[in-house]
Known about the structure:
- By secondary structure, the chain is α/β, with parallel strands linked by helices.
- The chain folds into 2 domains: 2-68 and 136-303, 3-Layer(aba) Sandwich (Aminopeptidase), CATH 3.40.630.10; 70-131, Elongation Factor Tu (Ef-tu), domain 3, CATH 2.40.30.
- It is built from 7 helices and 19 strands.
- It has helices at 2-9, 18-31, 147-160, 181-192, 227-240, 255-261, 287-303; strands spanning 40-42, 51-55, 61-65, 70-73, 79-82, 92-97, 100-108, 115-118, 128-131, 136-137, 141-144, 166-171, 196-199, 203-204, 215-220, 244-248, 267-272, 274-275, 283-286.
- The strands form 4 sheets. It has an 8-stranded mixed β-sheet with strand order 1-2-12-3-13-17-15-16, sandwiched between helices. A 6-stranded antiparallel β-sheet has the order 5-4-9-6-7-8, with no helix packed on it. A 3-stranded antiparallel β-sheet has the order 10-11-19.
- Helix 1 crosses helix 3 (147-160), helix 3 (147-160) crosses helix 7 and helix 5 packs across helix 7.
- The longest helix is centred in the C-terminal third of the chain and has 17 residues, at 287-303.
Amino acid sequence: MNLLRTLCQLAAPSGSEAPLTAFLLDYIRRQAPQWRVQPEVVAGEDFQDCIILVFGQPRTAVFAHIDSIGFTVRYGRQLVRIGGPAAETGYRLVGEDSQGPIECTLTVDDKTGALGYEFSRDIERGTTLTFACDFRETEESVQSCYLDNRLGVWNALRLCETLEDGIVVFSCYEEHGGGTVKFLAKHIYETYGVRQALVCDITWVTEGVHAGQGCAISLRDSLIPRRSYVERIRQIARQSGIPHQLEVEGSGGSDGKELQHGAQPWDWCFVGAPEDHVHTPNELVHKADIDSMLRLYRVLMQQL
């Protein structure tokens, strides 16, 4: 879990992914020589802060977004949400502006719900703030801010160790409206002819999806993936014997939303571990579900 701890500690809210991109490129450079297949690394200004790794003769692409939720400093000690973070008075926030490091406290007005901060000085407008990371690990679980989606990134990196044929994509902006997956999907479709995807993200513990019972295969959220593709994934999962659950929701979304709204005929399915305390500093994921997620991705990428 040391890699996951490091990923959770790196601040990279939507729009400010560059530090995590730099970490990932360095990690890939150092670790790839030990991977089973050496990938083509596609990155740079034409792809903003996104990264594409191409292994062998790919048939399927895995999309894992690297950004997180957070807050932007406005005026007069006001804060504006990045994405949809939970907000409670007392949450610890961290960041940095030209005057130095910041460790402040989130405030929520009891009457209006307006967000602000308590700090020894005014923070420069436009500064991004994120939850302070308190990574906790037990025999059964991990708990931290930003397991959504640093755990998906962790899963994708671990998948790279044994992946022979496939594409792994690290995308940006998912938590705040998207915007990168469309051009990434276009490039992948036109360059490699790949048009089926797995969305490597974290979902919710609900009344129908329980912690410790395996990662979730989502049959739908606010959008509906093509049923014939999802049924192929379900069949592979059943035959593998790996614990998993089926998710049905009427709201929420992921990188799959941009794939479905794009101009290319992409098939997609969300496959990810469920977490409790979503979008708080205390997101909680069961280790059995982490194990299930990685094992299932390895099998799916071999057989899809």
